[in-house]
Amino acid sequence: MSIPSKVTIIDVGPRDGLQNEKEPVPAAVKVELVHRLQDAGLKEIEVTSFVSPKWVPQMADNAEVMAGIQRKQGVRYSVLTPNMKGYEAAVLSKPDEIVVFGAASEAFSQKNINCSIEESIERFRPVTEAAKAAGIAVRGAISCAVGCPYEGEIAPERVALVARLMKDIGVEHVGVADTIGVGTPLKVQRAMDATLQYYSVDHVSGHFHDTYGMALANTLACLEMGIWHYDTSSAGLGGCPYAKGATGNVATEDVVYLLHGMGIETGIDLDKLIDAGKFISDFLQRKPHSRAANALLTKRAGI
Predict the structure, then answer these.
(1) Are 206 and 176 in contact (CB under 8 A)?
(2) List 144, 148, 222, 240, catalytic entry
(3) pLDDT, tens only, 86-142
(4) What is the pLDDT of residues 79-91, one digit of tens each?
(5) Are 142 and 159 in contact (CB under 8 A)?
(6) Is 240 annotated as catalytic?
(7) Are the C-beta atoms of 76 and 137 separated by less than 8 Å?
(8) Which of 20, 90, 133, 236 is 20 to 30 A from residue 3's alpha carbon, by CA?
């Protein structure tokens, strides 16, 4: 399949990127990050999650953040919902899309939510049914699609199982996530192939962490398969609590630099995107985890 001429980026920085930050990030800062991302041309932004503040205190201001956003026409605002209680809270904030999730690792599923893969996905059935009845899009995330901190390498058949189960409960689009960043191109392509048994190329996205520096290589491998949706995080925000030293999600700036260098359209202004990443990095008092951003910021400064 030929490399796509256009790619859609879903920036997950405000949610996946910030959720593990130890120090509270004020709602106003999160809202400003969303505004800067949409001003840079992002059309898909994962804003927050409606989870128990006991487990993810950083997302306790979810309703406040959603209420504070000045919504831009043509932008899709998504939120993560772990269960029906989360969905009922989320729907009050009028998201365009909800995100549900399931692991391709049996050990991960058992250790984290104390149930099997099949049971974990089935729990989302009432959530997806309610969302679709309300006209809200449903996206799914297949975590640990390449490797697991407990189980090691994950067979593509496990990924296919989760994709089939998600299709069965009504999930419209799935992201194949290398949650701990251990994937390499061939392994990632096999996980994608497994997902493509149940979803078309138009309804699958790549979600790569950069723990071993493979995220851009894995993105390129999926571009060669025709995949044209990717989850990324501004300034490379985020980390993974299950992989020590993980740098988190691949930086949106690095992926956009790659895509623009290949002549692939994104609709994103790289300079404004870098400014958005610098804004949140300055607040967090660290440099962006983006090589492209740091190189271009140095060039701007004339150093």
Answers:
(1) yes
(2) 240
(3) 999 999 999 999 999 999 999 989 887 788 999 999 999 999 999 999 999 999 999
(4) 999 999 999 999 9
(5) yes
(6) yes
(7) yes
(8) 236
Three-state DSSP class for residue 92: helix
Contact 253, 273 (CB under 8 A): yes
Coil/strand/helix, residue 205: strand
- The span from the CA of 258 to the CA of 292, in Å, is 9
Q: Is the pTM of this model over 0.70?
A: yes
Contact 182, 212 (CB under 8 A): yes
Contact by Cβ (8 Å): 37, 74: no
Alpha helices in 40-149 (DSSP H): 62-68, 84-90, 106-113, 117-122, 125-133
What is the DSSP secondary structure assignment for residue 211, as one 8-state letter? T
Question: How far is Cα 224 from Cα 43, in angstroms, rounded to an integer?
Answer: 23
Q: Confirm if 282 and 303 have CB atoms less than 8 A apart.
A: no
